[in-house]
């Protein structure tokens, strides 16, 4: 799924709704996987670091608000503790209000798998 998100990055940074949705859904799929990964996990974190501010807080948060709460929660996991959230108050609020899910990926971190 990281490949789909990476492929969509250029369009997503321009605020293209379908590309943003592709990245949001990739976060959901990856957070739902019960195993650790190296390259794909790192690339997802890097993509979301770029995506949060590139299209602007208004565009990013508007696209994210259209997603199901659990998708917003997954995106929040990838943006957790990102200092750029301070520049994006609308996105920060959406992520704060998203459900707190104990994702299979988080369990894998705890279990060291």
List keywords for this structure.
113 residues, 0% strand, globular
Description:
With 113 residues, the protein is mainly α. It has one domain (2-111). The protein contains seven helices and no strands. It starts with a helix and ends with a helix. The mean pLDDT is 90.
- E-strand count: 0
- Count up the helices: 7
* Low-confidence segments: none
Spell out the helices and strands N to C. HHHHHHH
Distance N to C terminus: 19 Å
Q: Outline, from the CA principal axes?
A: globular
The SS-based structural class is mainly alpha
List the helices and strands and how they pair.
Layout (H helix, E strand, L loop, with lengths): L1 H12 L3 H15 L7 H15 L3 H9 L3 H11 L9 H9 L6 H8 L2
Helix pairs in contact: 1-2, 1-3, 2-3, 2-5, 4-6
In summary, what is this structure?
This protein is mostly helical. The chain is built from 7 helices and no strands. Helix 2 crosses helix 5 and helix 4 packs parallel to helix 6 (89-97).
